[in-house]
Amino acid sequence: MAPPGAPPLVVPTARPPAPTAVPALRSTEGENPLGLVLGGRGIVPPGAPVILRSTPQYLRDRSNALGILRPDETVRILVGPIFADNLRWWQVQRERDNVVGWIVDQYIDANGRVETNILPMP
Fold it and tell me: What pLDDT, on a 0 to 100 scale, did the predictor assign at position 71?
């Protein structure tokens, strides 16, 4: 108890945790929703080019970029899927020059749209 005439005792209350940032990109559900096959081939669908990266990491500055996969380019699926940076990654080998790198198969962008970077080939 506080002595008479003293200001009332203030007990601090716990602060709610700070909100966590929602990532701009996140993986779609499932381990392999597109049916990619290890050792199989994939093709970049029409739309924006896909960044081929040296590591399975989403770095905004693209410092791990090896190059670009353009629509209709084909790759060989080597490893995957693995999950990193809240995305599903596959290691691929670009068929035209054998460069090996990592791509994300599908993701949900900041606007909630599903974007697909690679489709399986028969």
Answer: 97
User: Three-class SS of residue 50?
Assistant: strand
For the record, the structure tokens of 122 come out as 């028969």
Does residue 3 sit within a domain? no
Confidence at residue 65, expressed as pLDDT on a 0 to 100 scale: 97
Q: Enumerate the β-bridge partners of residue 87.
A: 84
Higher pLDDT residue, 81 or 28? 81
Residue 111 inside a domain? The answer is yes
| Sign of the alpha-carbon dihedral angle for 43, 49, 51, 52 | positive
- Does 117 have pLDDT greater than 60? yes
State residue 80 phi and psi, 5-degree precision.
Answer: 145, 175
CATH number, domain with residue 70: 2.30.30
The phi and psi torsions of 100 (rounded to 5 degrees) equal -105, 135
